[in-house]
């Protein structure tokens, strides 16, 4: 009889081992033949011979399995060795990644409010009429809806035109007090130097007991925030209108960006609008079932901030993915 144990032990490859397996355990293999021979063994010896045969079969089978695991491990190790890539190797062609200016600006804004313990809330990009308009005191056929060039779906849903619907969703799901910002993408049908159909806003909302939140608080907060963002600028509040705030204001900063450059970003007034804000309109609280509260809200466009911080002239260039632009922001 052949010394199967040695044959298995000396086997060097999985292919070879498979051949051995078939030779041993295959339909016409060694053990099949040996069991076949059993019928010629005298009856009284049969049990013992069969027992020995089974034992030998089981032990060789385990041996074969162990060898197979062993060879598999070796094969994996060898493959790893062959495929080894030294990721730390210096390549003169490798390009370093960098933050996109919009993300950089977004993070900087968020950092400010996180430090003041504001919660970050998010909402769906595909909104319904109620959250995007109705609950924000913009009933159907209200002319102020025209301020927002809306993308509609056939079923009446729409792409949110601002982050204000997140105010509504947050108030619907939480009891006051509320102190939140909501960063995210918004959509409007608009495309020129300073408008892209998709852009980003950060919404802010603070609600507390009636009388606990005032316009003075809002003013202080936004002044401090704008100094954090833009340094030593003048800030002014200009009366304005939003259906969801009353009173409402737009916030301008003094134009420090263009000295000697022939100013494209600032209007002739020397002021630059950067924020919308106001005290939350009572109709909005009514729509979400809040009573005896007061609050303020504000909203800003992130791209606009990014353009100012990085002195970018054409908003559209932020979304073209042109490395010549992006590489400047390492
Ligand atoms: N949602 C307003 C816009 O997109 C901005 C805003 C938010 C104004 C909150 C006031 C209060 O134009």
TrEMBL record:
Q: Does the keyword Endoplasmic reticulum apply?
A: no
Enzyme class, broadest EC rank: ligase
Q: Does the keyword Protein biosynthesis apply?
A: yes
**A GO BP annotation:** phenylalanyl-tRNA aminoacylation
**What's the cofactor?**
Mg(2+)
Cofactor remark from the record: Binds 2 magnesium ions per tetramer.
EC number(s) for this protein?
Answer: 6.1.1.20
> What is the reaction catalyzed?
tRNA(Phe) + L-phenylalanine + ATP = L-phenylalanyl-tRNA(Phe) + AMP + diphosphate + H(+)
Give every Aminoacyl-transfer RNA synthetases class-II family profile domain span. Answer: 159-309
Cite the GO molecular-function annotations of the record: ATP binding; magnesium ion binding; phenylalanine-tRNA ligase activity; tRNA binding
This protein's major location comes to cytoplasm
Location comes to: Cytoplasm
HAMAP family associated with the record:
Phe_tRNA_synth_alpha1
What does the sequence similarity comment in the record state about its family?
Answer: Belongs to the class-II aminoacyl-tRNA synthetase family. Phe-tRNA synthetase alpha subunit type 1 subfamily.
Assembly and oligomerization: Tetramer of two alpha and two beta subunits.
Q: What is this protein called?
A: Phenylalanine--tRNA ligase alpha subunit
Q: Which organism is it from?
A: Nitratiruptor tergarcus DSM 16512
Name of the encoding gene: pheS
């Amino acid at each position: 009889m052949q010394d199967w144990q040695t044959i298995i032990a000396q086997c060097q490859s999985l292919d070879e081992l498979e051949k051995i397996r078939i030779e041993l355990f295959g339909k016409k293999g060694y053990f099949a033949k040996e069991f076949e021979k059993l019928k010629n063994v005298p009856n009284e010896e049969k049990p013992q011979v069969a027992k020995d045969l089974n034992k030998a079969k089981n032990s060789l089978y385990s041996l074969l399995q162990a060898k197979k695991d062993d060879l598999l491990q070796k094969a994996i190790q060898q493959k790893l060795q062959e495929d080894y890539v030294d990721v730390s190797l210096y390549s003169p062609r490798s390009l370093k990644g960098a933050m996109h200016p919009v993300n950089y600006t977004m993070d900087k804004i968020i950092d400010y409010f996180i430090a003041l313990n504001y919660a970050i809330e998010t909402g769906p990009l595909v909104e319904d009429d109620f959250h995007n308009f109705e609950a924000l005191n913009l009933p159907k056929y209200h002319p102020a809806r025209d301020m927002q060039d809306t993308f509609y779906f056939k079923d009446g849903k729409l792409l949110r035109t601002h982050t204000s619907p997140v105010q509504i969703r947050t108030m619907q799901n939480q009891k006051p007090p509320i102190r939140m910002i909501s960063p995210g993408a918004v959509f409007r049908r608009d495309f020129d130097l300073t408008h892209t159909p998709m852009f980003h806003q950060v919404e802010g909302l603070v609600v507390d007991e009636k009388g606990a939140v005032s316009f003075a608080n809002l003013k202080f907060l936004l002044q401090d925030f704008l100094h954090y963002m833009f340094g030593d600028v003048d800030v002014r509040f200009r009366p304005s209108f939003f259906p969801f705030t009353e009173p409402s204001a737009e916030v301008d900063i003094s134009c420090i960006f263009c000295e000697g450059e022939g100013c494209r970003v600032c209007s002739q007034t020397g002021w630059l609008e950067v924020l919308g804000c106001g005290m939350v309109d009572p109709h909005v609280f009514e729509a979400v079932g809040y009573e005896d509260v007061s609050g303020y809200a504000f909203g800003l466009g992130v791209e606009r901030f990014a353009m100012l911080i990085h002195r970018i002239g054409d908003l559209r260039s932020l979304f073209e993915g042109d490395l010549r632009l992006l590489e400047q922001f390492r």
